[in-house]
Amino acid sequence: MTETAQKAEAPAVSTNLWYISVLVLLGWMIPGAAHLLLKRPKRAIAFFLCIVILFYWGLNLGARIWHYEPQQPLTFFAMVSQTGVGAPYFTARAIASYSRNHSSSSVYSFASRFRFGEGNIESVTFEYGNTFTWVAGLLNFLVLLDAYDIALKRKE
């Protein structure tokens, strides 16, 4: 029997829906956490560092923190790709809104680099920063799919 036929005849793996849901939700909020729960700490650390550094590096380059604007429907895709990062995205939004009203805070200089969420469009690195933040979010979605496949034993 060929290897392809053996894979086709393999029984479906029964998994707990609650466990998979928690795994995916936690993996979305904290990049790499799903791999940590699946006992793959090297991958978890690598994914966490890559995604978080990529996101905050993009903000440091002057990226905008996107939110949905009904007048410009394509902003929805930018918002979804950035929210893919999870907790770092919501942390950056909180830092931006807090620092806007509290200039003496310790994170004020960081928030001023990306103009408190509005992005520094005058900077030559503005588009690079946006791209970095979008890629970080989309990369986290791919990491979630990888963890999902590992949890279902489709992948090692």
What does this structure look like?
This protein has 156 residues and is mainly alpha-helical. The chain is built from eight helices and no strands. The protein has one domain (17-151). It has helices at residues 3-9, 17-29, 33-37, 41-60, 75-83, 87-101, 108-113, 126-151. Helix 2 (17-29) runs antiparallel to helix 8 (126-151), helix 4 packs antiparallel against helix 8 (126-151) and helix 5 (75-83) packs across helix 8. The chain is elongated. The model has no long low-confidence stretch (mean pLDDT 87).
Spell out the blueprint of helices and strands.
Blueprint: H1 3-9, H2 17-29, H3 33-37, H4 41-60, H5 75-83, H6 87-101, H7 108-113, H8 126-151
Produce a short descriptive summary.
It contains 8 helices and no strands.
Q: In percent terms, what proportion of residues is strand?
A: under 5%
Average pLDDT number: 87
Largest sheet: none
Number of spatially distinct domains: 1
Shape descriptor reads elongated
* Alpha carbon gap, first and last residue: 23 Å
Characteristics of this structure?
8 helices; mainly alpha; single chain; 156 residues
